[in-house]
Amino acid sequence: MFKHKAILLFIFCSIIAATNSVLGQTETTIPNERTYVHTSATLLFPGDYLYYKCYVQRLDTKNLSNLSKVVYVELINEEQELIFHHKLFLDKGLAHGDFFINQSLSSGNYKLIAYTQWMKNLGVSIFFQQDISIINPYTNDQKEILKTDADTIAENSMAYDNKNKFEFLKLSVDSDNYSTRSMASLLIEAATDDVKKGSYSISIKQKQPTEAARSIGADEFNSFYRTIPEENSLLNSSFLPELRGELVMGKVLDKETLKPIKNTRVILSALGQETLYTVASTNEQGKFYFNIAQPYDQTSVSLRPLDNSNHSVKVMDKEKNDYSKIEFFNLKIDSTLRTKILDKSIHNQIENAFSAVKPDSISIQKPKLFFDDEYLVTYNLSDYTRFPTFRQTVQEVIPDIGIKRINGEDSYSVRTPDNVLFNALPSVMLLDGLLIDEHSKLGQLDAREIEKVQVFTSNFINNGAYYKGAILIETKDMKDATSIKTYSDDLRHTLSVPQKRKKYFSPNYTNETEKNNSIPDFRYQLLWYPDFSFSGKKNEIEFFTSDLQGIFEISLEGFTYSGKPVSLKSWFTVMD
Fold it and tell me: What percent of the chain has pLDDT over 90?
């Protein structure tokens, strides 16, 4: 008992110390944040992907933020309608994602917006805002972007004075001209450790067919935040910072009186692995806060009041942002772009038809499980004689679990080391990640459908709740957990799944067979490298041109280790 208490006390003190270290101020003030987003393009067509990279910085140090663990990215139209809402878990202040432009989006002007929850205290005006325009030739309604007699259209002139030098960083390509399907080499040179330790993103794409909204560079970013205070009071803030992960907030109410219940506990669990299992306590107003500290795949979670079946759980949705005062770029086109729009549309259709042979890959992140492997005993039931029910399996196969009869019902209990404090306490039971608080319902579960049973043989404490070990049951296809009615539908809550990190496809034409294959290559975006970092003083990035000819732009954006903005551009030509 004393060993576990000592460990828990140490962890608690470590969290407090780490929090104070993160704040760098006092416990009642936290540095404000700002978010910069590098986008792959500002003019898009159906079939395109909008790629983006988020950089979240502290305003006091300009370093990548160690405060917020989640950033939100949204796209809205001129009617303030939400096109998408992405939630991304930050890795040391960085995250990247993408969005596919489909044929349901109308031609018009849009705004890409990025923020952290902590930024919401200072209002929408400090959110990152980038104008995005979409041309959808598959719809009849083009009034938002068609030129009238009163409109003028700017030529898409491109300055060839390469903006390819920063004080201590330079980029260059090995040629100004390339042929189609040829290898190109991008050289990036850093002169200082500050630059080498920085974080950057790189986009290489064909120039846009018409003058679209200007892409905001990292070097322009500082001017937007000159009047923003460096820190903010935690006590006077309406929105809490997500310092340890995504915040899920709610209230526990009495079902009859609807009055809030203080000092009670709520358990969150979800179908899948036990990555989302956690316990929270309500405060004086009956409110609770869960911190989900890592990405997850589950869209539906179960929230159960622990202490009283007469209590109900109400989840508090996050307040929507007021975008009514946002101004939009005004894209205008005319018939002179007909051929370019037609070509682009055909190329996108062909590219998407061959998307199966040009796949992006998901970066697999191993989840951190709640229960430590050190205390887990695993029983793969295929290694044992199969018994008909879970109850019989426990009796014959799993000596670490005992069965008690309480008020005529079975209760399963882990045989942990003798400990008076825990003897009368329950054991946690999760079926495919979902909490099962009525153990007797599992007695007749068909054991042939169970893949394995894991027993956590240590007593533990979770947010003030004491438990006598845990029983983790994993079925073969997770169908049984949802069929056992251990919770009511009003205890379910839907979460949006965070964006997954990807490694984006890039062809390799060094082999003559690949170079001469019959698969068309109409990539306008030759390279999207969202997480570039230096491995030495000089870094060489190889990429391949496509079947398209024209002028292509190289854009590098990011920040040095100390927070200095870097915005470099260069161009090259592709000819047959």
Answer: 57
